[in-house]
């Protein structure tokens, strides 16, 4: 193990963030560069090397956390990187973006602050990139089989890399102009700089993966024709249909889905635009939705110079400690202050939007809301609590309802859907159409990046076995597996 007394002698210490007043003036990542390395070895030494490491259960990838904690404590960064990559294709993504269910399941977390697993992970991978330990791993021989992957988010990229390394010829189709899916255009630069995606893409290119951008399967290429062209197809198109808010005034100018707003801000950082067509500059901004996407909208609005930012959530404010019905090692619903919330704005809980108010030109000017409460399992409005707040830009960040069916992909393949509207699949991630598989949010529904990568790796095994009759690729999860929650 690492330090046998580390969990007794060393307190939890996390990555330092730059001052809020400084970081809202740029789009760089919020953390102080290099602040983790001086402390991370001791933090890794807090790992108890438990007899039963429940962090494995919390992580759908089955990350070998005690092993790479031990290597990080000993500052054997090469060995730590090898152990990290044994289960995770893209630890620099998860180390920045995953909410770390592994930490919620950490045994030390029963009565002490958990090990900073996420910080250790990102330290290992950043050190590996800096030292040249991350290199292309092309296959020793080609199988002669071809695979098309639809979608270049974390699930699609993970499946593509696994299948390429298994010797298959893989082409990734992406409807946007750049590879990365939601990683590219849904995650703001201040949460993850896109250079991390770019260097992974270059690694994958060097391994042999092909990429086709600005090609939407279902519109630009008929799905049935694509199936005939390739020996197998993996659908990793995500759950990109945003949940709408059908209230009076929804049609007003200035009311947008989060995924209309965030990609434009990212395109400014890519150099495609000088100014975003949907900007918060000088406006009173209201973000509807209390999750991570909502927080991304908050942070983006701060950087665009919003006059005010208010985030609304229909659910009650979570507590700061575990509820009795969310015991360790489940992933608890806790009050979370992200870096975006540290930068300002107001958070309002237990409210529901009744309607939007516009001016004579059809631009949104205000939002009307009412307080709500749960009674007998039903959400009810509280009389006399209605109020009006200024709103010149509203972003709807209430989650996603399923994969896109408007482009014809589902119909052209002839795919069956499950009761939740996701693409149905069997134990090998195969759909009802021979040779067509599904991974990530398209089959699971809206989920976390760590589940997407796990699904991509698992689906790759199913595809490999379909093509060759057997597979040595790992499959960390089954399609029916769910988060460690109650």
Automatic annotation (TrEMBL):
Which Gene3D superfamilies would you find in this protein's record? Alpha-helical ferredoxin, FAD/NAD(P)-binding domain, NAD(P)-binding Rossmann-like Domain
Q: Where is the FAD/NAD(P)-binding domain?
A: 146-456
- Top-level division of the source organism's lineage: Bacteria
Q: What protein name does the entry list?
A: Glutamate synthase subunit beta
The yes or no answer to whether the keyword Oxidoreductase is present is yes
Residue stretches in coiled coil: none
Which residue ranges traverse the bilayer? none
List the SUPFAM superfamilies hit by this protein, alphabetically.
Answer: alpha-helical ferredoxin, Nucleotide-binding domain
Keywords tagged on the record: Amino-acid biosynthesis, Glutamate biosynthesis, Oxidoreductase
Identify the residues that the record assigns to the Dihydroprymidine dehydrogenase domain, covering every copy: 39-131
Q: Which organism is it from?
A: Streptomyces yanii
- Pathway(s) per entry: Amino-acid biosynthesis
Entries under InterPro entries matching the protein: DPD_II, FAD/NAD-bd_sf, FAD/NAD-binding_dom, Glut_synth_ssu1, Glutamate_Synthase, Helical_ferredxn
Asked if the keyword NADP belongs to this entry, the reply reads: no
